[in-house]
């Protein structure tokens, strides 16, 4: 795992809680990224776990949800909505609240970097679930953090 060169010991770094081994995924599971965890611990950074969907008020487990079209940038700017996959319940408010909470945590801790769960509709970095499949583009929280100037890197399998 390659970390940013200017990442300093003691610096706060946001990390998706599921890739730290916390059972907060929508299905109640985790997706430990042991290589990332070792790299961050070796560098001596302050790991700040976040799960935007839980921060936004959704439970564990919870129904799978994703935008019907677009990606997290579209949701963040109000051009798309997030719905549960099976029954179509609109959970956009929870996704936005979670993104705002993660952003507030980043600001409070002075984090410049985040390592978030790839393919998540909240945390995806290069790809996220939308419209019943994967799309190139970020999840809602990644879009929010990037809009605020944070650098976000993919984590997890």
Describe the model.
This protein has 157 residues and is an alpha/beta fold. It has one domain. Helices cover 29% and strands 22% of the residues. The protein has helices at 34-43, 52-55, 72-76, 92-109, 140-147, and strands spanning 12-16, 46-50, 65-67, 82-84, 113-117, 127-130, 133-136, 151-155. The strands form 3 sheets. A 4-stranded parallel sheet has the order 2-1-5-8, with helices on both faces. The chain has a two-stranded antiparallel ribbon with strand order 3-4. The protein is globular, with a radius of gyration of 14 Å. The protein starts with 11 loop residues before the first strand and ends with a strand.
In short:
The protein has 157 residues and is of the alpha/beta class. It has 5 helices and 8 strands.
Q: Which helices and strands appear, and what pairs or packs with what?
A:
Layout lengths: L11 E5 L17 H10 L2 E5 L1 H4 L9 E3 L4 H5 L5 E3 L7 H18 L3 E5 L9 E4 L2 E4 L3 H8 L3 E5 L2
Parallel strand pairs: 1-2, 1-5, 5-8
Antiparallel strand pairs: 3-4, 6-7
Overview features:
157 residues, alpha/beta, 4-stranded parallel β-sheet, 29% helix
The structure class reads alpha/beta
Strand content: 15-25%
Euclidean distance between termini CA atoms: 13 Å
Computed over alpha carbons, the radius of gyration is 14 Å
The domain tally reads 1
Largest sheet: 4 strands, parallel
Number of strands: 8
Low-confidence stretches: none
Question: What sequence of helices (H) and strands (E) makes up the elements?
Answer: EHEHEHEHEEEHE
